[in-house]
Amino acid sequence: METYQGKSIFNGIAIGKICKYEKEQQQVKRTKITDPEAEISRFDRAREEAGAQLQALYDKALAQVGESGAMIFEIHMMMLDDDDYLDSVYHIIRSQQVNAEFAVASTGDNFSQLFASMDDEYMQGRAADVKDISDRLIRVLMGQSGESEIKEPVIIMAEDLAPSETVQMDKDNLLAFVTTLGSSNSHTAILARTMGIPALVGIPVKDEWNGKMAIVDGHNGTLIIEPDEVLLAQMQAKKEEELRQKQLLAELKGKETVTKSGKKINLYANIGNVSDVAAALANDAGGIGLFRSEFLYLEAQDYPTEEEQFHAYKTVAENMAGKKVIIRTLDIGADKQVAYFDLPKEENPAMGFRAIRICLERPEIFKVQLRAILRASAYGTISIMFPMITSVEEVRQIKEILAQVRDELTTQQIPFGEVEIGIMIETPAAVMISDLLAKEVDFFSIGTNDLTQYTLAIDRQNEALDTFYNPHHEAILRMIRMVIDNGHKENCWVGICGELGSDTALTKRFIEMGIDELSVSPAYILTIRNLIRELP
Amino acid sequence: MKEFQYTIKDEIGIHARPAGLIVKKAKEFSSKFTLTKDGKTAELTKLMALMSLGVKCGDTVTVAVEGPDEDAAAAAMQAFFAETL
């Protein structure tokens, strides 16, 4: 078993035999000709034929991978019509009285050198395109077909692959690409991504690997030659799981999260960063149920400005295109410490100066965040959620600060939208007074991680307590029921954004209790949607 | 002769696709178009020459148009730049 590290172009696992891709060798010989004009018309006919081939490739790619993947062949057609390129070929044929193959090869070399020497990575990549069209012309001139057939499912290994080679391969027999050259923004890489085929670059090509069993692991960019049985079984299972997810996705994408009796559940995603939106959308989240805003503070060296925050919230709101985005205000303290906040050291930080408590003590920091969120609300559907609430007074105080911020924005004529206001229910106190809290807000989101820790008096970081820890403790389930009931009495919708939300053993029970929303990691969305759609 | 300046907004500059589209557009007119960036010039009808100028996002280029239909050609090309780049 040998393992090689490369760079992954597309995530995914492929298991199969390696097949070394052999390009047809083009030995271009320089031969003297006597009738340059006849040679030029021979070249022109080849050019027409190459153009027709590219048109066919374009049509094929258009059907297989869409317009963006097919564009490359349109560009090749344009390059084939380039005046300078053609002039150079004609000139070499006439002035040196040589065959068209040689004239094309020299011209191709010159032009691809021109691109290769540019200081821009994108333009360097175009050298391969010039080479590709030149090779095509030469093949036509020499009467070669250029088609390489793959007859069984294989992992293709090659020094480099031209986009035309990639698209010509029979997709059904293509498990993965492994190449030595090629960048992550080469056209072949883009095609691999669009076709959804695992691909690695930066892997050496070894003749002795031809025909050997191998695993391409696109998740960590490794190629494993002749894997042992244990690993093979492991990767096989992982691959099947991936396939299952993919099928689930295809089946469930765009469908409602609704039980058989018609109860609709809002299934949202938890995200911790702007870039996580991609995963939320890819898994078809109905919205963002928990956008942890801490990253803005944890990643910074100083308090993030209103503009920085506004930009992050606006981006998420815009990307979600009108779907709900629930932003949780600053939740630091306890295990999340930020140096510039200069918080005092505490004996018991989990029960200490954290989250909303910091915000209420230091409204100048809180207001910056609220302004940024309100401004972003003009660009999508945003809700605000406050963490670590223990009393009605806190909520009233928050609403007062929020009203001040709204007034300021109105005076300054800065636009903002309507926002729903909600709180996290993560302390036993909040559960016990949820009937009162429900009168103050639009929604509750139950943070089961902290709620469990505070209710069971078990520190989750302490492994020694694992035997006492029961996440399905009846106390927690009763609390959840109580919160749902109290919320509904006041028209306040109730969701779960803690880990229990994605606990499939409890999904049925939560729905029977009347839960309105579950917010989970993007990767769990489709599994849970699937489960809910099976419920009565 | 007509002339206009344009600052490129496309993230990867004059890459293959817009260059191809520009060439197509330029060929619709009988005027001759040249594009100059930092003293280097390429005709807009020549794809590879145009690409090899390596025009990047933020670069300001000058396009000169000369010929019988230069007024219409310059206006059309300027609009085209604004739309694609």
If you had to describe this structure to a student in words, what would you say it looks like?
The complex is a heterodimer of chains A (about 525) and B (about 80). With about 525 residues, chain A is an alpha/beta fold. Chain A folds into three domains: about 25-140, Orthogonal Bundle (Enzyme I, Chain A, domain 2), CATH 1.10.274.10; about 155-245, Phosphohistidine domain (Glucose Oxidase, domain 1, 3-Layer(bba) Sandwich), CATH 3.50.30; about 260-535, TIM Barrel (Alpha-Beta Barrel). Chain A is about 45% helix and about 15% strand. In chain A, helix 7 (about 185-195) links the parallel strand 5 and strand 6 (about 200). In chain A, helix 2 packs across helix 5. The radius of gyration of chain A is 31 Å and the shape is elongated. Chain A starts with a strand and ends with a helix. The model of chain A has no long low-confidence stretch (mean pLDDT about 90). By secondary structure, chain B is α+β, with helices and mostly antiparallel strands. Helix content of chain B is about 35%, strand content about 25%. Chain B contains three helices and four strands; from the N terminus they run E-H-E-E-H-E-H. A four-stranded antiparallel sheet of chain B has the order 1-4-2-3. In chain B, helix 1 (about 15-25) runs antiparallel to helix 3 (about 70-85). The longest helix of chain B has 15 residues, at about 70-85. Chains A and B meet through helix 2, helix 3, helix 4 and helix 5 of A and helix 1 and helix 2 of B.
